[in-house]
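tool=predict chain=A
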Amino acid sequence: MNPENLVRNLLAWFAANARDLPWRETHDPYAIWVSEIMLQQTQVKTVVPYWKRWMRALPNVRALAKARPEKLHKLWEGLGYYTRVRNMHKAAQAIVERHNGEFPNRFEDILELPGIGRYTAGAVSSIAFDQPRPILDGNVIRVLTRLFGIAGNPRESKTNAKLWRLAQELVQQAATLQTHAPRPTLRAPHSPPPLPHPVSAFNQSLMELGALVCTPRQPRCAVCPVNKSCRARREKRVEQLPNLSRRPQPTQRRVAAFVVQHAGRFLVRQRPADVVNAHLWEFPNTELTPHRTDLKSAARDALGFSPQTIQPLCSIRHSITRYRITLEVFRVALNPARLPSRPRGSWLDESSLRRLPFASAHKRILSSVLRR
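tool=predict ok
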């Protein structure tokens, strides 16, 4: 396999096939960093409107550093994995403190920022600053294991190190090219975006190939620009690679949530700082188990008072990490003669609720309740 031909073929393919994505219309490291963090475990089509809204609200590092956590969580609402946005806030504050608000251009400085690992630091360094730093995400792992016929588990240290070395060799090859790759067709509203340099374009081409052609299932090998170099295709092992170990079976959980309204206000609560979906808002809820199925008892524990009646409202299925959760939602009526003095939450009106960031499943409850 000739590395130079491989790199040139991918650059030419990327120039003709790159998707028109808003963060590709700039070399601003802040904008690229935001996109990379949002794209972690999230599909591109989901990220685009979030990225645009974020950049309008927080156009630079200093704006992010000064933003209130409530605003950040509201802008992020629905993207999940909220630790990402909290780390972005910390990283922006570190950039203001250590780098006078200018996004650092040294790989080592980027890597030191909260929430940034080797992949993200490499992506920002290569895409924004055209530095020959390798990247290795799920798409790139899939492309490289198939191209080079790597049978080892990419999650194991020896195979992972080999993949990083291959990624480094290829991006270094891109850095030696003397001419720029042709610019992809983009529809910027005013002036054209900066011409992509070989390093920037090459790393993006690896990710793009994995997203559009070298997909996990039913890869489009016939239209792959480097199919003649692909060892997995020659050996008919495309579907077997990458050789990832099976993940544990998801755990099923059952949770009851309670919607209670009084004098035009709903009882809600904020999640504590040390749990999943920290700082987000939700309706009072509690887990049901085979040994704990009594709804009145569960409602009393979640609400801090005994309800007069409990009526089914809706059921929502969702996932958090390895858990598959069935959220059973109930509408609760208060006893007017015994209003709670110390409920476990806050009574908030509709306008206040709409301004708060809710966990995704509870946002669906809120939408259902406010429509009725």
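The chain is about 45% helix and 15% strand. Residues 3-240 form a domain with the Endonuclease III; domain 1 fold (CATH 1.10.340.30).
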